[in-house]
Amino acid sequence: MRAFELVTLLCLGLASSTYIPLWKPWTKLILTHHWPETFCTMEHCKEHYKYWTLHGLWPNIGIACNSSWKFNMSEIQDLKPDMDKYWPNLLHPTSAEFWKYEWHKHGTCAATSESLNSQHKYFSKALELYKMFDLTGVLTKAGIVPAEQNYQTDAIEAAIEKAFGAKPKIQCVHPSAKAEQVQQLGQIEICVNSDFKPIDCEKSEDDLWSRVNDVLLYRFRGVRGFSVCDLNMPVHYPLPMENF
């Protein structure tokens, strides 16, 4: 099935809130990190962060797998301090809508595995993996920090691969004008297998599941989204703004 047809199917399924069946069990989870300052150049954020935050934990197969399994904040109340800190809603800090969205869209599919078959298991595992793969610390140790200077994509990838033993997927916001020669570092995906061990992330068109969020969240709203960084273009890692 071509990528366009699959995205169309997904969009129709979400629009009608119908169940989209799993064709086979997921084999990979994608732990996705935002660089908040890049996200906040596209949206009006209420707060600014100086570290990478969680976007989500996405199985490579399935989306919105069980619309009847409603998000229940009371089930993860003990996780809320860490959720607020590491998995914040960058647009509406006091709202749980972001977590509700991630549970409905990805958590209900991840829950086909016994190790993630509850809301508490899903969110706590995402937080556990986030802390295990300390992206902010790894990049800082490699001398890759937010700055006025630019970096090369392969240098960022090499630092992460050296730390975790697997290749990440590094995504950028690409320039809107041809005259611009710098892309902004925006999102980094770290992939793990069903035993939660790091594995190489795909970067091809076939790895569509990790890109559906960007298609739905950004592209249909007319806002530039994240896509794989251009190896031939410098990467800007923007300095975080101070909170107002």
UniProtKB/TrEMBL annotation:
Query: What CDD domains does the record tag this protein with?
Result: RNase_T2_euk
Which Gene Ontology terms describe the biological processes this protein takes part in?
rRNA catabolic process
Predominant place of localization: endoplasmic reticulum
Q: Keywords for this entry?
A: Disulfide bond, Endonuclease, Endoplasmic reticulum, Glycoprotein, Hydrolase, Lyase, Lysosome, Nuclease, Secreted, Signal
Cellular localisation: Endoplasmic reticulum lumen; Lysosome lumen; Secreted
The record's GO CC annotations read:
endoplasmic reticulum lumen; extracellular region; lysosomal lumen
The catalytic site is made up of H55, E102, H106
Q: Which GO terms describe its molecular function?
A: hydrolase activity; ribonuclease T2 activity; RNA binding
Q: Which Pfam families match?
A: Ribonuclease_T2
So what does this thing catalyse? a guanylyl-uridine-RNA = a 3'-end 2',3'-cyclophospho-GMP-RNA + a 5'-end dephospho-uridine-RNA; an adenylyl-uridine-RNA = a 3'-end 2',3'-cyclophospho-AMP-RNA + a 5'-end dephospho-uridine-RNA
* Cross-referenced InterPro entries: Ribonuclease_T2_eukaryotic (IPR033697), RNase_T2-like (IPR001568), RNase_T2-like_sf (IPR036430), RNase_T2_His_AS_1 (IPR018188), RNase_T2_His_AS_2 (IPR033130)
Coiled-coil residue spans: none
Per the UniProt entry, the signal peptide is 1-17
Q: Which PANTHER family match?
A: RIBONUCLEASE T2 (PTHR11240)
Provide the family line. Belongs to the RNase T2 family.
Q: What is this protein called?
A: Ribonuclease T2
